[in-house]
C-alpha cells in the first residue's frame, strides 16, 4: 500500500532551501519538530535509531527525549541490545520520519 502525502509539485510547498540553515541545523530541526507537533502527528518525537551489531546494521524505533548542541537524548537500558551495540561501536544514526509533512531529518553522530 502506498499513501500519497503530497509533493512540491502538488501542494505548492517549497523545496528544501539551504538558506533555512542560516541559523544552524538545530534551529531548523526545532522548527520542524514544532511543525510536526502543531500538525498533530502521532509521536512527532519518534525516530528510527540505527546501530551496528556484528558488522551489520540494526534499526529500531525509539522516542527522542531531547535535542541540543551536544546531541540527541533518548533513554535505554545500558544492558539492552542497543546499549551494548553503542558501547561496542559508538556511532549511530537517527531518522525522524515526518511523512505527512513531506519531511525527514537524518542525523549521524558519535
TrEMBL record:
Keyword line: Flavoprotein, FMN, Oxidoreductase
SUPFAM superfamilies the UniProt entry points to: FMN-binding split barrel
Pfam family, one: PNPOx_N
GO biological process: pyridoxine biosynthetic process
Membrane-spanning intervals of the chain: none
The UniProt record lists the keyword Oxidoreductase: yes
Cofactor: FMN
Protein name, as recorded: Pyridoxamine 5'-phosphate oxidase family protein
Species whose genome carries this gene: Mycobacterium kansasii
Amino acid at each position: 500500500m502506498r499513501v500519497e502525502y503530497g509533493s512540491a509539485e502538488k501542494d505548492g510547498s517549497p523545496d528544501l532551501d539551504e538558506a533555512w540553515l542560516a541559523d544552524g541545523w538545530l534551529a531548523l530541526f526545532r522548527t520542524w519538530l514544532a511543525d510536526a507537533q502543531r500538525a498533530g502527528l502521532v509521536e512527532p518525537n519518534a525516530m528510527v535509531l540505527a546501530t551496528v551489531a556484528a558488522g551489520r546494521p540494526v534499526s529500531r524505533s525509539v522516542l527522542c527525549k531531547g535535542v541540543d548542541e551536544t546531541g540527541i537524548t533518548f533513554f535505554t537500558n545500558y544492558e539492552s541490545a542497543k546499549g551494548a551495540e553503542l558501547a561496542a561501536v559508538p556511532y549511530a544514526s537517527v531518522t525522524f520520519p515526518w511523512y505527512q509533512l513531506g519531511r525527514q531529518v537524518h542525523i549521524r553522530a558519535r
